[in-house]
Amino acid sequence: MDAVTKNRYNRRDFIVTAAKAGVASAAVISAPGLLLGNRRDQPPNVIFIICDQMRGDALSCLGHSNARTPNLDRMAAGGTLFTNFFANSPVCIPSRVSMFSGLWPHQHGCLTNESGELIQSLGGSLLGYFHDRGYRVGWIGKNHTYAKERLQELDLSKIRAREPFRAYSKFVPPYWHSDTFWPDEQCHPYLNTTNAIEFIGSARAGEPFFLHLSYFDPHPPYMASSEYTAQYSSKDMQLPPYVPPEKLSERLAEHRRALHYDRIGDTDLTETMRYYYASIQWGVDSQVGRILAALEEKELAGNTIVLFASDHGDFMGEHRMVRKAMFLYDSLLHIPMIWYAPGRVQVGARVKNLAQGIDLFPTLVDLTGGRMDRKFPGRSLKPYLEGGAQQEYDFAVIASAAYSDLPLGYFDDPELAYNPDSDVPFHTRVQRLTWKAENRTAMARTNGWKLILSETRPPELYHMAGGWIERENVASKREHRKVLKSLEQKIRDVWSW
Fold first, then answer.
1. Of 28, 307, 389, 433, which sits with the fewest C-beta atoms within 10 Å of its C-beta?
2. DSSP letters of 438-478?
């Protein structure tokens, strides 16, 4: 029985407490003896960089008018950019756990940020694999993946999330943004990168390293130093085409209304957008440039694989909303992925083939010359990195998540925008109502089509036409019935409801 079949869910399995889901998750991820390393004389180093909440189209090399990412563009020019890479979850923890376990969220049991536990053991995970191969392993920056005590077992562990001045308060509206007011050298992006450069600088001959570097930006609150925000003007920000949420689903329309996004004008959005894209350049792109420079200075660029990705996306103007939520739309799932590894991957290539978060584990094993005694639900992308891209009309990426509907009659007695009896900000109070693991939702997406199934709402079918914006739900149209059934079967094949 392979990992996919073994971890199929039925409805009875799903309706369990978050604690039980966490135990099940740990049991799957902690299983020993799943992977074996294949030692080589000089295996490549690995630097796996993740940022938080960066959309897949937010790269200037893709022609995005709002984005300025010169260092990521340089990575893409010297390596391989996947233009159709997707997260397996629209929120942090499930997506990251999928990347580091190689399992879909419905397999490891964490379906929202509030359901299930973090990875409880290095064994059987991406970190454990490289540790067992004799790599020096380090973790720097945001966690949201492993139990903290597990990271303390590594050669280096420096966990940082957001700076204290970014902490939410009940006075903060959902579109909050601001300049940072600490010197850059004291902010976490700079400190994380400095620690990473020190780790790289301590590399010794014959001892490969695996470094995970995790940046908080551009996660809200959207912030950057004034040196960067001053370079962006809200008047220059281009809003995405407006698609009324009612054309997709009533649940999305309810979400927009509950969070008061229907009260936000375009000028509010474009002002938020300038901080979002400044945050990408300040907190992510400029730091990646420092890492690339350190590799060149240490003369390690020729034997180091640098992988850059995000954990999930952001509405950032689509449907006139910002932030994330428990929905499976491309704005939240389509994310950047760049591989930079001179001599190992194509130079300047753009791969259009679909790829997903669960592909990263098997690809890193394969690309570093390792071998696996475990069948992953994902696939190694090494053939595509080496120039073997081909047309795949029927291949589908799968995403899975949980959600809860707003309470019955919510709009008769909605959350107060300001509640003097609560220290929890309005947007967090509303979102917590919808992040409970009460109902399941799943997505199957091919190049041309996308199906979303939810337990409390009708199916959603979209003709993507090579883009990343859902424009009209055509699930009810008889002429698309065959496509709907085909995609539905792809979901049922891996997650039986």
1. 433
2. TEEEEEEE-SSEEEEEESSS--EEEE-TTSS------TT-G
Q: Report all structural domains of the chain as residue ranges with CATH numbers, in order of start.
A: 3-394 (3.40.720.10)
Compute CA 418 distance to the chain's CA centroid, rounded to the nearest angstrom: 31
What is the residue type of 413? D
Contact 315, 321 (CB under 8 A): yes
Give the model confidence (pLDDT) of 333-353 as tens digits.
999 999 999 999 999 999 999
pLDDT band at residue 41 using 50, 70 and 90 as cut-offs: low
CB neighbours of 462 closer than 8 A, spacing ≥ 6? 248, 449, 450, 451, 470, 471, 472, 473, 474
**What is the Cα–Cα distance from 260 to 256, expressed in whole angstroms?**
6
What secondary structure letter does DSSP report for 370? -
- Do residues 289 and 71 make contact, with C-beta atoms less than 8 angstroms apart? yes
Phi-psi region of 136 (alpha: psi -120 to 50; beta: other; left: phi over 0): beta
Are 171 and 425 a contacting pair, CB within 8 Å?
A: yes
> What is the Rg, in whole angstroms, of the alpha carbon atoms belonging to the chain?
22
Q: What is the Cα–Cα distance from 203 to 205, expressed in whole angstroms?
A: 7
Give the residue among 402, 408, 406 at the shortest CA–CA distance from 437: 402
Q: How far is CA 322 from the centre of its chain?
A: 16
Structure tokens at 267: 């000028």
Percentage of residues in the chain having pLDDT higher than 90: 82
